[in-house]
């Protein structure tokens, strides 16, 4: 009588196919995660910029100043195109405002830096001047919109109205940053 050997298990080809499929899913998930991480970095940077704008507005409305003896003209928020930094400045009398925007004396309270992820930079330059007491914004004709862009062609726009309202348009490849 002959013995019949039955082998239970998988062939090498079957194992290679399973490993290939698992590897494919892993690399697709990794690519999706990296894309998600870059978009979250842009959103976080935009929220930090928006928070600094609100900080400038709140400081102006409360009358907080860094000038010891002079009255407060307002708070100025400034950013530069293709730059990684933006600043918050208190301004005392002496020609402050959106046209003359030379605050003398001026005190830079803080300079902020954008995260160095995916080439996030400001697309445009500009400044916003918040007046004390009412928090209204003086904005030059150009520059009332801050636009952050990344290397992955996504952008995030923050707008400041003359009434002091700060609004945002979440990132998208379709946001027009050509101000």
Brief account:
Helix content is 28%, strand content 27%. The protein has 179 residues and is an alpha+beta fold.
Give a description of the structure:
- The chain has one helix at about 10-60; strands at about 75-80, 85-90, 105-115, 120, 125-130, 135-140, 145-150, 155-160, 165-170.
- Mean pLDDT is about 80; it is low at about 95-100.
- The protein is rod-shaped, with a radius of gyration of 26 Å.
- It contains one helix and nine strands.
- With about 180 residues, it is of the alpha+beta class.
- The strands form two sheets. It has a five-stranded antiparallel beta sheet, covered by helices on one side. It has a four-stranded antiparallel beta sheet with strand order 4-7-8-9, with helices on one face.
- The chain has one domain (about 10-170): minor pseudopilin epsh domain (minor pseudopilin epsh fold).
| Helical stretch tally | 1
Pattern of helices and strands? HEEEEEEEEE
Average predicted local confidence, pLDDT = 79
Question: In CATH, what is the class?
Answer: Alpha Beta
Layout of strands and helices, then pairs:
Layout: H1 12-62, E1 74-79, E2 85-91, E3 106-113, E4 121-122, E5 126-130, E6 137-138, E7 145-149, E8 155-160, E9 166-172
Antiparallel strand pairs: 1-2, 1-5, 2-3, 4-7, 5-6, 7-8, 8-9
């Amino acid at each position: 009588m002959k013995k019949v050997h039955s082998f239970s298990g998988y062939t090498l080809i079957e194992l290679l196919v399973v490993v290939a499929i698992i590897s494919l899913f892993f690399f697709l998930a990794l690519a999706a995660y990296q894309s998600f991480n870059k978009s979250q970095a842009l959103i976080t940077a935009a929220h930090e910029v928006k928070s600094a704008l609100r900080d400038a507005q709140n400081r102006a409305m409360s009358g907080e100043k860094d000038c010891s003896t002079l009255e407060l003209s307002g708070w100025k928020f400034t950013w530069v195109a293709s730059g990684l930094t933006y600043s918050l400045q208190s301004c005392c009398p002496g020609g402050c405002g959106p046209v003359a925007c030379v605050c003398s004396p001026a005190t830079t309270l803080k300079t902020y830096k954008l995260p160095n992820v995916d080439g996030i930079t400001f697309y445009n330059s500009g400044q916003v001047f918040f007046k004390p007491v009412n928090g209204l914004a003086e904005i030059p004709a150009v520059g009332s919109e801050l636009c952050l862009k990344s290397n992955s062609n996504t952008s995030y726009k923050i707008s400041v109205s003359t009434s002091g309202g700060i609004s945002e348009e979440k990132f998208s490849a379709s946001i027009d940053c050509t101000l």
